[in-house]
Design a protein that fits this description.
Blueprint: H1 13-24, E1 66-70, E2 76-81, E3 85-88, E4 94-100, E5 108-115, H2 121-137, E6 142-149, E7 155-162, E8 168-178, E9 181-190, H3 194-207, E10 209-210, E11 228-238, E12 241-250, E13 256-266, E14 272-279, E15 284-285, E16 290-298, E17 305-315, E18 322-323, E19 327-334, E20 340-347, E21 353-364, E22 370-377, E23 383-384, E24 389-396, E25 405-415
Antiparallel strand pairs: 1-2, 2-10, 3-4, 4-5, 5-9, 6-7, 7-8, 8-9, 11-12, 12-16, 13-14, 13-15, 13-17, 18-25, 19-20, 20-24, 21-22, 21-23, 21-25
């Protein structure tokens, strides 16, 4: 039988082995080389940290040029920044100068000087307390936080100021006596101005120098009682009351304040029955002017006599809180039983609010004697704002004679919690 040829597909064993070796020796994946810095493998890169905002620059005070300022009176000098404004409101009895920085600042400096004559330390301290009561105690926005006596003898008082509407800061009061001059230096630094004006104010305060050798003003140490006269007086009785009314005439060369009358009533035999000391109706009396007064005694016998009448007063000191700048529109009517009714309106024409408003009504007879006097407080209006009006009325049931004419006066305490220089404004 014939065999069909068979193709021999057998691969030599040696060749198969070689192919197997080739298949098993496939190249491994390439690994990128690792870079080292000699200390080990560098860490894998991560997301870069967020950028840090640059710090806010701290405000710095600008360099200023100072000029020497001497008040026209020669009483004081100081170094003042050349772009500041000087507001001089001085009079013959008082030096009052306000020093203001450019618009945009809320700070200011005030120089207040009076000629009080030489004083011992205890009187200076007492006058300093009086000054504080006058300028700070009545202002609810000021709070005293410190007081001290400096090594150079000056008295220092520090007040915190805040009006509740954005104006805030610190006011430092320096008081000293230089010869006859009582000096008060008031330095207000607004909180918003502190980074910009602190150094300038320190330079100004350090340079302030009163000159005791300069002659200015006239110090009136006391008022001669002989120059205080009682005039236009009358003594009259009504039921159980005895009244002595009149006016004090100021014949001294100075304006006076704290005026008081001392009146004693005696019997026909000269025995003192009663004695009273009372203040007059108005707080001050100008030189050559008069102020009315009234003293009332209870349970006096009929027809007593005035056996003692004396007047005492002190020289008036400037009081910016006291004002008579009020407008009165008044009239009179006759009430039941012949009573005299005086009434009208009081108006505040100023730009400053006022408190403790009081109307003083004086009734005169045909000979000019005081026969009726009354002080009418504005109880219904504890504060009279700029432009505001308030009505008042008083009935005189009894008078010491027949009324011929009358006069009315108005007095009040100014109330200004937000000084214009303290108003919050944008600073540079």
């Amino acid at each position: 039988m014939k065999r069909s040829p068979i193709t021999d597909y057998r691969i030599p064993i040696a060749l198969l082995g070689a192919l197997a070796l080739v298949a098993c020796a496939a190249p491994a994946p390439t690994v990128p080389p690792q870079v080292t810095d000699g200390l080990g493998v560098l860490p894998t890169a991560t997301q870069p940290p967020a950028a840090t905002a640059p710090p806010t620059p701290v405000p710095t005070e600008a360099t200023r040029t100072f000029a020497s300022y001497t008040h026209p009176s020669g009483v004081f000098t100081l170094n003042l920044p050349d772009d500041w404004e000087v507001l001089d409101e001085s009079s013959d009895q008082r030096l009052l100068v306000r020093l203001l920085p450019p618009v945009g600042y809320g700070s200011r400096v005030t120089v207040d000087i009076t000629n009080e004559g030489p004083m011992p330390p205890q009187e200076i301290s007492a006058l300093a307390d009086s000054y504080i009561r006058l300028h700070y105690a009545a202002q609810p926005n000021y709070t005293e936080i410190n007081r001290a006596e400096l090594p150079d003898g000056r008295l220092q008082f520090v007040f915190q100021y805040a009006d509740g509407r954005g104006a805030a800061g610190r006011e430092t009061l320096y008081i000293q006596q230089a010869g006859p001059y009582f000096t008060a230096l008031r330095v207000f630094l607004s909180n918003r101005d502190a980074p910009y004006l602190s150094g300038a104010l320190e330079t100004l305060v350090a340079s302030f120098a009163p000159d005791a050798s300069i002659l200015w003003g006239s110090a009136v140490a006391s008022i001669n009682p002989a120059e205080l006269l009682i005039a236009n007086s009358t003594l009259w009785q009504d039921d159980d009351m005895t009244y002595y009314m009149g006016e004090v005439y100021n014949a001294s060369p100075s304006e006076i304040m704290d005026v008081q009358v001392r009146i004693a009533l005696c019997s026909e035999e000269g025995v003192v029955l009663a004695e009273l000391t009372r203040p007059v109706a108005l707080r001050t009396a100008p030189s050559g002017g008069t102020v009315p007064f009234s003293v009332a005694f209870e349970n006096m016998p009929d027809d007593p006599q005035v056996c003692i009448e004396e007047v005492a007063a002190v020289p008036a000191r400037p009081d910016p809180t006291y004002s008579q700048d009020l407008l009165l529109d008044t009239g009179t009517t006759v009430g039941r039983g012949g009573s005299l009714i005086v009434g009208g309106t009081v108006t505040n024409p100023t730009l400053t609010s006022m408190t403790n408003v009081e109307i003083v009504i004086v009734i005169y007879d045909a000979e000019g004697r005081v026969i009726g006097l009354e002080s009418v407080p504005m109880e219904g209006a504890p504060q009279l704002d700029p432009g505001q009006s308030e009505a008042f009325e008083y009935t005189f049931e009894e008078l010491g004679g027949e009324a011929d004419r009358y006069m009315t006066f108005a007095q009040a305490t100014t109330f200004n919690p937000s000084d214009p220089s303290l108003a919050p404004t944008a600073t540079p």
